Amino acid sequence: MTSVALYNLTGEYLALMNTLSDGDFDAQTIADTIEGSGLTEAIAEKACGVEMVARSIEMHVPAIDAEIERLAKLKKQRQTAAAGLRDYLKRNLIAAGISKLESPLFKIALRDNPPAVDIFDASLLPSEFMTQPAPPPPAPDKAAIKAAIKAGAEVPGARLTQGQRLEVK
């Protein structure tokens, strides 16, 4: 069984509307013709079908989110285990006094890190060693802009726009 796609039904509906609006018909004749065409019901049926497919696709989202969370935890566990093993290796090499090992698979060496500053009491540091973070750049206050435009003011560089959203209940 073949069915007509929603966009084809929409095209037919618009064509019918254009034809009727170009003619010299009264509002009741236009309403009766549109109702009699069956296009409104066909579009409604297709719309319900599209929404059902969308919901069936969304039905998997919680399972995907749970799997992402599970895999993130697994990743973190694996990273922690690998870091722990490397720390264990480092501690034992230090304890044994071994700074370099070579095998057919790996070259393992202990290396000194660059010197690091340890701040044990920041309140004792002279002000010349303190930095002030730059203030964040100014950002548009959209709520104030909206209120001003709604009150009749013209705000250069801004305007109110009206979009649409699909609401399914």
Helix percentage range: 55-70%
Distance between the termini: 30 Å
Largest sheet: 2 strands, antiparallel
User: Which strand order do you get reading across the main beta sheet?
Assistant: 1-2
Q: Helical stretch count?
A: 5
Shape: elongated
> What letter string, H or E per element, gives the SSE order?
HHHHEEH
Describe the structure.
- Among the domains are: 6-58; 61-111.
- The model has no long low-confidence stretch (mean pLDDT 92).
- A hairpin with a 4-residue loop joins strand 1 (100-102) and strand 2 (107-109).
- Helix content is 55%, strand content 4%.
- It has helices at residues 6-22, 27-37, 39-58, 61-96, 142-150, and strands at residues 100-102, 107-109.
- The chain has a two-stranded antiparallel ribbon.
- With 169 residues, it is mostly helical.
- InterPro entries: Sipho_Gp157.
- This is Siphovirus Gp157 family protein.
